[in-house]
Amino acid sequence: MLILSRKVNEKIIIGEEISISIIDIRGDQVRLGVNAPKTVKVFRQEVFDAILLENKAAAASTPVFPEFDFGARREPI
Fold first, then answer.
1. Closest Cα partner for 25 from 9, 43, 3?
2. Is residue 12 within 8 Å of 20, Cβ to Cβ?
3. Residue 67 covered by a domain
4. What integer pLDDT is reported at residue 32 of this predicted model?
5. Residue 6: which of 30, 42, 35 has the closest Cα?
6. What pLDDT score was predicted for residue 72?
7. Is the dihedral of CA 46, 50, 56, 60 positive or negative?
8. In whole angstroms, what separates CA 38 from the centre of its chain?
9. Which pTM value belongs to this model?
């Protein structure tokens, strides 16, 4: 992990297309601005973790489509 010190209005550059700006520092909170191409997804860690959990749950679930008959044989009514 690279650890850098920055002041308000200073930036960190990642590659050629991503920059992170220090917008404000108040007490123990830092406001960041992220400038990245629209193709790069940027998430807060807790949001990213929630997305991963939802994706895992969705992948493990069995879809139910009662309105569709996928060739299953049924007893005559």
1. 9
2. yes
3. no
4. 97
5. 30
6. 60
7. positive
8. 13
9. 0.68
Greatest distance between any 2 Cα atoms in the chain = 75
Kind and range of the H or E run holding 12: strand 11-14
Residue ranges in the chain whose pLDDT is less than 70: 65-77
Residues 18, 38: contact at Cβ < 8 Å? no
- Residues of the domain holding 46: 11-60
Q: What local confidence, expressed as pLDDT, does residue 71 receive? A: 62
Containing 46, the helix (H) or strand (E) segment is: helix 45-60
27 lies in some domain: yes
Q: Could you tell me if residue 71 is inside a domain? A: no
For residue 4, being part of any structural domain is answered with no
Domain count, the chain: 1
Token look-up 């601005």 returns 33
